[in-house]
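Appendix B, record 7
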Amino acid sequence: VQLVESGGGSVQAGGSLTLSCRVSGFSFSRYFMGWLRQVPGQEREGIATIDPAGITGYPDSLQGRFTTSKDNAKNTLYLRMDNLKPEDTAMYYCAADEGPWNGSSWLTLQPGYWGPGTQVTVSP
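Structure tokens (predicted):
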């Protein structure tokens, strides 16, 4: 199982970025996918999930600014981030699991497989 994120970088507040996650080594279309982020010293936070049927989920705190999607033909997961804020600065991780992610809240999700992450920095 391999997941590799790309598309991170620096952007000014109010701007947009789209992250990509190319996967290999498993049946992408059958897996539960998603994104998490982490700031050093803070809790890891789940920010988007998408199931094999394409049904998505997001924490209310994002206020609809992030959208995840996938292209099964390309084995690629995407995260579109709009109206970015300085507090969105974090390392962003793509993750996957064979089933629904374990965890009772967006702060306790524990998917089985992770990518190495891509840094997103939002300046004021």
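Remarks on this record: The mean pLDDT is 96. The longest strand covers residues 17-24.
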